[in-house]
Write a structure and sequence with these properties.
The chain has five helices and six strands. With about 200 residues, the protein is an alpha+beta fold.
């Protein structure tokens, strides 16, 4: 059998492609025995593949799932707390003169331990001001003092108001509950996903 030689450009002549030489070559290749790996080798290869697939589908440890859920709950609570600001709301107006700022003090009722908590600069020509105290303890009654101060820090006048922190409790509970729901939903989602991947 003569093997067709390629032309100078590297191509096989068209008449050689359809010749008997190529037919015999294809038949010779087809007659070659097919070699397959022994059953033991195939079992080992399949076992390794199954182990790798099982490692990929292995669920994370339970503590990691709960840690992720708790972290998400805390982050959600912090974001909602800063955005919604559930707390005691103080509102007041200025009519005569414009102080430089307002200083807000707070003390638990009957304690006499007054602390400075915030200074609110005056924004001209605004006459209405609001401050939200989000760091309160439920059930505690607080005495707030709002003092108007001049440019030199002198006190121009002050007012006091007594407020029970229970007024802020519904909003605070709503934020805390929202964070817990989001965190628990994340845990359930991860556990449900693991169950589906496991073929449950």
């Amino acid at each position: 059998m003569k093997t067709p030689k390629p032309q100078a450009n590297g191509r096989i002549p068209p008449d050689a492609k359809n010749g008997s030489g190529w037919d015999e070559l294809r038949k010779a290749i087809a007659r070659q025995p097919q070699v397959s790996p022994p059953p033991e080798v195939r079992r080992r290869v399949l076992a390794r593949v199954r182990v790798r697939e099982a490692e990929k589908l292995a669920p994370p440890p339970s503590w990691l799932t709960w840690a992720w859920g708790v972290t998400l709950a805390l982050l959600t609570t912090a974001l909602l707390w800063g955005f919604l600001q559930p707390g005691i709301v103080l509102q007041w107006r200025t009519e005569n003169g414009l102080p430089a700022a307002f200083r807000i003090y707070r003390a638990p009722l009957g304690s006499g331990e007054t602390i400075f908590i915030h200074e609110l600069p005056v924004a001209q020509p605004a006459q209405s001001y609001t401050y939200v105290d989000v760091f309160t303890w439920p059930g505690q009654t607080y005495v707030y003092q709002v003092a108007a101060v001049g440019a030199q820090g002198e006190t121009l006048g002050s007012q006091q108001i007594t407020v029970n922190a229970l007024t802020a409790l519904p909003g605070q509970l709503a934020v805390l509950l929202s964070g817990v729901i989001v965190g628990y939903a994340a845990i359930i989602f991860v556990q449900r996903r693991e169950w589906l991947l496991a073929g449950g």
